Amino acid sequence: MHLIINWEDFLHHHWQKRPVLLKQAISDFVNPISPEKLETLVIEKNLDSQLIQRRHGKYQLGYQAFNGYASLGQRNWSLKIEAINHWHRAAEEFLSLFRVFPDWVKEALTVFFSVPGGEISPQTTPSDVLVIQGMGRSRWRVWHQLLSLYHYNKNDFAEPIINEELISGDVLYIPKEFSHEAISSEAAISYCLNFWTDNSLRMIRKWTESLSDENHRGIEYSLSPDLLLREDPTEILPQDITAIQDIMSQFLLQKREHLENWFTQEMSQTSYELPKAPEAEVYAPSQVQTLLQEGHPLHRLMGLRMLHIGNRYFVNGESLDSDHADAWNILARHRTIEGLLLSHVIHSPDFMEQLTLLINKGYWYFQP
């Protein structure tokens, strides 16, 4: 599979501006997961799933345990499973097609399996989304962002700005807050890649809590040495607020490095459950060294995030030794590591000890 997208044109004309349908944006499309494999995964791994049904003109969302397709009938339902790339290697490899975007802005891959008449109910998401059509056909409709779902339910708003049937290999981009829905005319799979979003107040709260946890001290505020007499002692003047704002900005600049570390650490953690690595023995550094020298590939746990800012690397919220930044960069950029990629550090006791610790935690593993 290959992406045929002019990313510069896409970012300039469409990203967070307007929806666009990119017909046959993926050539030689191969479905990453079949309906049968999806059914097996959800049951065997007890994955969280959401059943979407339409009965008597109303949508019903169900979160009950999934026991297979047989009991659901032949029409009018869709099954939604989030973070499928955490549980299926081909889905993770499929997601790597979109590494043109930074790893930290991409959320996990959500998959919808729909039978004829199955729908993705009308919704407005707070984040941008790329919809990739897999097997089958689905008709997607997108409305202007200023139109609310209230209008949709009243059936009284304008024509959709996109009303197209997607086939395998088509990619639909929907900016945040644009209302959209989908309905399938046959058994179909749609993959949705949502992009990270958060609220500034929530981020400020989390960051300041991390400062408190580490006993950071703020800058003491006191009245300006240029204090002027004023006629009204009960009034707070604009320059008083400016002084407060300045001291807060000064503190933010003073704590820039802490902010960098905190943000990278936060974003290196996924909001979804990570799978467990295949069971293996607890390794010693010498054993890991031997396995790499013998050419055994080292696999990264599906869904695991590894990010860096400068030479500071984090994996799943854990800080790594910055003395080996070049080696950590190899581990961050590659899903599978062959021994030769780490040949320059394979005899470094410090690096091998920390790598072994990460392997024993299940973040990387040798295929049994």
How does this model look, in words?
Helix content is 28%, strand content 24%. It contains ten helices and 20 strands. Strands 2-12-9-14-7-6-4-5 form an eight-stranded antiparallel β-sheet, covered by helices on one side. Strands 8-13-10-11 form a four-stranded antiparallel β-sheet, with no helix packed on it. It has a three-stranded antiparallel β-sheet with strand order 19-15-20. Strand 16 and strand 17 form a beta hairpin. The longest helix is centred in the C-terminal third of the chain and has 17 residues, at 238-254. The mean pLDDT is 89.
Please state the oligomeric state of the protein chains shown: single chain
Overall pLDDT metric: 89
Shape: globular
Please indicate the percent range of residues in DSSP E strands (runs of 2 or more): 15-25%
Which class best fits the helix and strand makeup?
alpha+beta
The gyration radius over C-alpha positions equals 25 Å
Q: How many separate helices? A: 10
Order of helices and strands: EHEEHEEEHEEEEHEEEEHHHHEEEEHEHE
- How far apart the termini lie comes to 28 Å
Helix content: 25-40%
Largest sheet entry: 8 strands, antiparallel
Low-confidence stretches: none
Widest sheet, order of strands: 2-12-9-14-7-6-4-5
The tally of beta strands, per DSSP, is 20
Quick tags:
10 helices; 24% strand; 368 residues; 20 strands; single chain
Produce the secondary structure layout:
Layout: E1 2-3, H1 7-13, E2 20-22, E3 26-27, H2 35-44, E4 49-55, E5 58-62, E6 77-81, H3 89-95, E7 106-114, E8 119-123, E9 129-133, E10 138-142, H4 149-154, E11 162-166, E12 171-174, E13 180-184, E14 188-195, H5 200-213, H6 238-254, H7 256-267, H8 285-293, E15 298-300, E16 306-309, E17 312-315, E18 318-319, H9 325-333, E19 336-337, H10 349-360, E20 364-366
Antiparallel strand pairs: 1-3, 2-12, 4-5, 4-6, 6-7, 7-14, 8-13, 9-12, 9-14, 10-11, 10-13, 15-19, 15-20, 16-17, 17-18
Helix pairs in contact: 8-10
